[in-house]
Amino acid sequence: MSTLQELRGLMAGLSAGLQLQDTMAAVAHGVVAGLGFGVAAISMVQRDGSLEVTAVSGEPAAVTALQGLRSPRSEWDRMLAAAEALGPTDALRLLRHDQADVWDEDLVPSWVPEPSAVEPSADGRRAWHELDSLFAPLYSPDERLLAVLSVDLPPGGLEPTQEMYALLELFAAQASTALEHARLHTDLMAAHEAARTALATRLEGLIDASPAAIVEVDRQGLVSLWSKSAETILGLSAADVVGAPLPQRADRPLDLHAVFSWLEAGEALPLSYLGWTRPDGDTVRLEVSASATHTPAGELHGVMALLSDVSDRHRLEQEVLRHYTHDALTGLPNRAVLVERLTQQLTDRDSCVAVMVVDLDGFADINDSLGHDLGDHLLQAVARRLGESLRADDLLVRIAGDQFAILLGDAADATDVTARCHQTLRALHRTFDLGGLPVDVEVSIGLASAEQDDAEQVLRRADLAMHEAKSTSSGLVTLTAAEIAPPSDRVRLLGELRRALENDELVVFFQPQVEVTTGALCGVEALVRWQHPRHGLLLPGSFLHVAENTALVGPLTSRVLDLACAQMQTWSAAGRDISVAVNLSARSLYDRRLVHQVRTSLDRYSVAPGRLRLEVTESAVMHDPRRALAVLTELADDGIPLSLDDFGTGFSSMSHLRMVPARELKIDRSFVRDMVREPDDAVLVRSTVDLAHNLGLAVVAEGVEDEQTLRQLERLGCDVMQGYHIGRPMRVDEFEDWLEARAPVHSSEVPAPVHG
């Protein structure tokens, strides 16, 4: 299991229970087991202001030495103030000892040993960098120090990575929330069980001081506790709800019977989220953690919930998701939503499902002659007019640039589909009024009905039909799967491809990838071609789809791996250590022989695993995430860098990124190609770069075709780029000529790869 997977499970587990000591132990164990540190200790703030180590995990000797150790609060305050002076790391102040210039007796806590094997500096103080420790203060939502998480790196002089910093920050943030909830819950339960009447005043003050809403409901479903924060967050006064049934203002029914059945079985309630509509009409998003309350006799009394208002965070998440799923100019969904919806309808269809792709002919000329502003207004007007004829189950999306697509979800039959396409043609042939300027456009429409194929195949046929429609007078072409590749042709092509493997007719072209800031070569992508004896050089689009639907994909993948590794061996012999990326298809990813094939190719040509990069698309992973992640994890454990290709084109990009043990992600060319002209594409690229860097991943931009795009990628902080502006896919001799002709960018001939 990858570190990210294990971390996510541990983070989710922190919210499953509310016992303070158990939560602290889980935090310490999670840092050691999930993040790879040697020792982790939680120093909890005590009532007298001092900090006591209350949970330790890691090396037994350290556990024995640190457990119960106390240190004055003043020492930690000085150290955290110094951390602030050095500069905060995002929301948390992390202090690594080796970031300080010198050892400062007034700053370091008394229990931290002074390094012994370090020569004093000119002023007599010793360098601090020998101590490999990190400190993360854990704060409550109202900025009170709850505890300090201190971690030590495992022995052996290992350097912490950017990923470890990022993961520690994520984990520390979750730990802060878990500790605050656990502390509140422990105090509440202690007061509740000690004596309700005697501690009523204290309990009320503690509850009212909580920034989270605290609500208790008894076994009869009646509200028995409603804190002041609950009044503020939920919009209802305690006088109106205490003693009455819980108001049903959530965005889904609250089944209290099921909740109490769960609690009676001794199960912890999982962390959950819900929407709540206040009496003033506002809706708040709540994070809910809950546990059972008991009578002094130990019987189940009710359920107590802590509800935190996470509306701002939820809005931010929705905004980011909308950036990835919608077009900013027209407000329409994008291709990722189309693929997701089409896939769903192909699975559940009970009627004819078809897709039409609409392209505006000569739109570039309109932009050049009228200006980009009017061009944008035209695209918005086209979107509105296309939307006028939509039915309830249809979906209109903007694919890219001047291309739109309509998913016809409830068409009666092929005749109905064709009639609707002609209706769309007539609608778009009506003159557009752009601020008093009449504009007429010609359009081409490609139509494809769903057959025995998946979403990508349907879209590919619709796109091919659209391009064919440009050469017809009608402007409309329908392509069936049989017209693209008749069964007899597929059988013939399959036989020829099998013979091509036997006769070494497959060749590999190489497209360079370079650093954005320096232009330094950091690797190449291997792209297969077929040198057909009769038809000449064939691109992969004309034959790969046949192989991917048969068992022939295994031998083809093995051959490409061999060609890539053989070329790396040749380059190494010539003194050039150039890494090569190879694409994996969805079918090969689920082939149980893939890992063996990769290992065999590496061994056969004596290539280090780190020089071969394997690229896999998000859609391939999401076809069967469990199987895919098992294979990818095994490859990553072998030291083979993994790249998430075509990032952003899958609907689940944000939610599944953490699951893939990748070192880099590649932004799909559809976003990069138009980013200079399309503000929403630029936003997507910037968001992707920031997201990847926060997780310690490098970013590769595909489809860089001009200098303006290159400069914008540089401003956004993108790491690596490839595209025709850098170099087209080339035969090995052409690539070597290209490499020799380039001006040197570093003192060494071939720079070290920046992404594995």
**How many β strands by DSSP?**
27
Oligomer: single chain
Q: Could you tell me the radius of gyration in angstroms?
A: 31 Å
User: So what's the CATH class of the largest domain?
Assistant: Alpha Beta
Which fold name corresponds to the CATH topology of the largest domain?
Answer: TIM Barrel
> Ranges with pLDDT <50 over ≥5 residues?
87-131, 479-488, 651-655, 744-756
Number of helices: 28
**How many domains comprise the coordinates?**
4
Mean pLDDT: 78
Shape: globular
| Largest sheet geometry | 8 strands, mixed, barrel
Name the helicity range. Answer: 40-55%
Share in β-strands: 15-25%
Structural class: alpha+beta
Q: Determine the N-to-C terminus distance.
A: 20 Å
Model description:
Residues 490-743 form the EAL domain. Residues 199-243 form the PAS domain. Residues 351-482 form the GGDEF domain. It comes from Nocardioides mangrovicus. The protein is α+β, with helices and mostly antiparallel strands and 756 residues long. It folds into four domains: 3-175, 2-Layer Sandwich (Beta-Lactamase); 195-309, Beta-Lactamase; 317-484, Reverse transcriptase/Diguanylate cyclase domain (Alpha-Beta Plaits, 2-Layer Sandwich); 488-741, TIM Barrel, CATH 3.20.20.450. The chain is 42% helix and 22% strand. It contains 28 helices and 27 strands. The strands form five sheets. It has an eight-stranded mixed β-barrel. Helix 1 runs antiparallel to helix 2, helix 5 packs antiparallel against helix 6 (200-209) and helix 19 runs parallel beside helix 21. The longest helix is centred in the N-terminal third of the chain and has 33 residues, at 162-194. It is globular. It starts with a helix and ends in a 15-residue tail after the last helix.
